[in-house]
Amino acid sequence: MNTAAKTKLDKLISVLEQRVSRLKAVRVALDDKVIADDIAELFAEHTNGDSGTLHQSPKRKGKIFLKTKAFFDSHDNAPATLREIMAATKINIHSLRQVLYKTAVDEFERHGQPGGQRETTFWLKSKKGSDLDDKK
Predict the structure, then answer these.
(1) Which of 100, 99, 94 is nearest to 121 (CA)?
(2) Partners of 56 in the beta sheet?
(3) Is residue 15 a contact partner of residue 8, using CB atoms and an 8 Å limit?
(4) How confident is the model at residue 129 (pLDDT cuts 50, 70, 90)?
(5) What pLDDT digit, counting tens, does each position of 68-89 carry?
(6) Highest-confidence segment of 29-33, 37-41, 79-83, 117-121
(7) Is the sign of the CA dihedral 11, 12, 15, 18 positive or negative?
(8) N or C: which end of the chain has fewer CB within 10 A?
(9) CATH T-level fold of 61-135
(10) What DSSP element (H or E) covers 31?
(11) What one-character DSSP code corresponds to residue 113?
(12) Half-sphere exposure (Cβ direction) of 84: Cα atoms closer than 13 Å
């Protein structure tokens, strides 16, 4: 076998070994009551056949989504930053990002702050749209 092929295989093996190590750490973390719910939220997703793509089950958005939605419902769907949502809901940043950017991305609008600030605000799509329509 040529050297280039061996090098590529060695790199691939290294990447796969790192993934296996991370999966083992997740398996161990399932016993930790503090983060078990967050891990369960991630695994509420399932693969789409042989394509390997992940999508959220339409029947279950998850506890983190429901807490986030409840936050917006109780705040008249006012735009809020990640920090504001985290402070009010006690959801950790990783779980909140998972919901806002991946598992329920179709449920939320987002917009960067004016003036070039880096913080982004979020709100529920359906409610914000209907509120704007009511004001016209």
Answers:
(1) 100
(2) 45
(3) no
(4) very low
(5) 999 999 999 999 999 999 999 9
(6) 79-83
(7) negative
(8) C
(9) Arc Repressor Mutant, subunit A (1.10.10)
(10) none
(11) P
(12) 13
Residue 17 CA to residue 74 CA, distance in Å, equals 45
**CA distances, 50 to each of 22, 40, 43, 53, 94 (Å):** 23, 22, 17, 8, 27
Residues near 85 by beta carbon (within 8 Å), at least 6 away in sequence? 68, 71, 91, 96, 122
Dihedral (CA of 77, 80, 82, 84) sign: negative
Q: What is the mean pLDDT of residues 103-124?
A: 81
- Phi and psi at residue 108, in whole multiples of 5°? -125, 150
Stretch (H or E) spanning 94: helix 93-98
Amino acid found at 42: L
